[in-house]
Amino acid sequence: MSNRALLEVIALDVEDAVAAQAGGADRLELVTDMAADGLTPARETFAAIRAAVDIPLRVMIRKADGFAAGDVSVLAATARQLRAEGAREFVLGFLNADGSPDLAAVEAVVAELDGCPWTFHRAIDRAADRDQLRKALADLPGLDTYLTAGSAAGVDEGLAVLLAEAGRGGEPGYGARILVGGGLTLAHLPVLRAGGVDAFHIGGAARPDGWARPVSAAAVAEWRTALG
């Protein structure tokens, strides 16, 4: 059995996607507007990227900055449209004002996904109670991943939480894979790998010249080499 770790890279467009795949990315997270921390890309962008690469694509379902759902009917319609365009994997996550999971919004979107796999994103790092959130979402169809830094402040602050949660795999609420992202650096990899984490997510780290420039295949390759 392979112990190859999963490397997911944020892609904004076809140029990003092609470079990320060339560098060794296993999967892409498709978003637009990183000034708002990543919103749903246009259907046309998804279709163009799907035609350009052959690795899995997880598409963000999020219409505004922050973790409030907003108009749930718009989110559900967005999910339907992406499914119709051929999307098969997704990223989402919504919180109520008190930091509890917005189950109504999450369930409404998940109902449109037909059991497709999806990631609950870094909203978990803003949750009032991470354990409660995990247990509340545990039985939703398709949930297979949590994208998390362990802390809203990033991996440096969240490392102990990440390792503790990795050690609880198989417990109720802890069956989904931990995908670490948010201030992640190459220096974090040895301790995370030793702790059983096997999935990693990079955005800015794939763009050494900043978000105004495309993904660097060489930067992605450096991560791929480090992960083995």
TrEMBL record:
| SUPFAM superfamilies per the UniProt record, alphabetical | CutC-like
Domain of life of the native organism: Bacteria
Q: Do you know which Pfam families this protein is assigned to?
A: CutC
Could you say which protein family the record assigns here?
Belongs to the CutC family.
User: PANTHER family given for it?
Assistant: COPPER HOMEOSTASIS PROTEIN CUTC, COPPER HOMEOSTASIS PROTEIN CUTC HOMOLOG
**Annotated protein name in UniProt:** Copper homeostasis protein cutC homolog
